[in-house]
Design a protein that fits this description.
By secondary structure, the protein is of the alpha/beta class. The protein contains 5 helices and 12 strands. It is elongated and about 55 Å long.
Length: 198
């Protein structure tokens, strides 16, 4: 389990911030882990601001909600740079579904960390074709802490790190749930992609 480093006192201008990234496939518990870390920061009476992309309205228009129905308040934003305008003087910034943001999210996270904030980001590291997803590779590169979480393969019961799309839609961004995606092991994912091409 990830144990949070100490943020230090609020208002300390010499305080160093950092970036934590929680990544993995669909149904791996990324959002659960994000919510867990943010709740711990709230218990510690730290000032927390939480953001998600405005396009993600699957469970709730404003709250971040996990597949297991745990939730936490958040502010939906259209563009990554909106986060800089809204973060204010908080201690901790949480960002869910980072793969859906524009590439500016990397500079935004770096700026926030450079100004002494703890930045916790969750997102899919790979898209439905098993390719690096949006700005996530660059976020992983600049993060001090990276946690890759795994799901359980719907076919084999092994550890899964791939999100397999169950329909023929070829758009990289397609919001969905268990009717649209399955978590799969590498073997099951590769087999499924081969069958799809046939």
């Amino acid at each position: 389990m990830f144990i949070e480093p100490q943020l230090g006192k609020s208002g300390n201008e010499d305080r160093a911030g950092w970036i934590e990234v929680v990544c993995g496939c669909m149904f791996s518990g990324k959002t659960e882990e994000l919510i867990r870390r943010l709740n711990r920061a709230l218990i510690a009476r730290q000032r927390v601001e939480i953001f998600k992309p405005a396009i993600d309205r699957r469970y709730h228009a404003e709250k971040i909600v996990s597949h297991a129905e745990r939730e936490i308040r958040s502010t939906p934003v259209q563009f990554a740079n909106d986060i800089l305008l809204l973060a204010g003087d908080c201690d901790v910034v949480g960002i869910d579904e980072a793969q859906f943001f524009d590439d500016a999210i990397v500079d935004v996270c770096n700026h926030l960390a450079n100004t002494g904030k703890r930045v916790i980001v969750a997102g899919l590291d790979m898209d439905y074709e098993g390719r690096p997803f949006g700005p996530m590779p660059n976020l992983l590169a600049v993060a001090e802490f990276v946690t890759k979480v795994h799901a359980i393969c719907a076919e084999t019961g092994e550890l899964a790190s791939f999100s397999y799309r169950l329909n023929e839609n070829n758009s990289q961004v397609m919001l969905g749930e268990k009717d649209t995606y399955e978590a799969r092991s590498r073997k099951a994912f590769v087999r499924g992609m081969k069958n799809r091409k046939k």
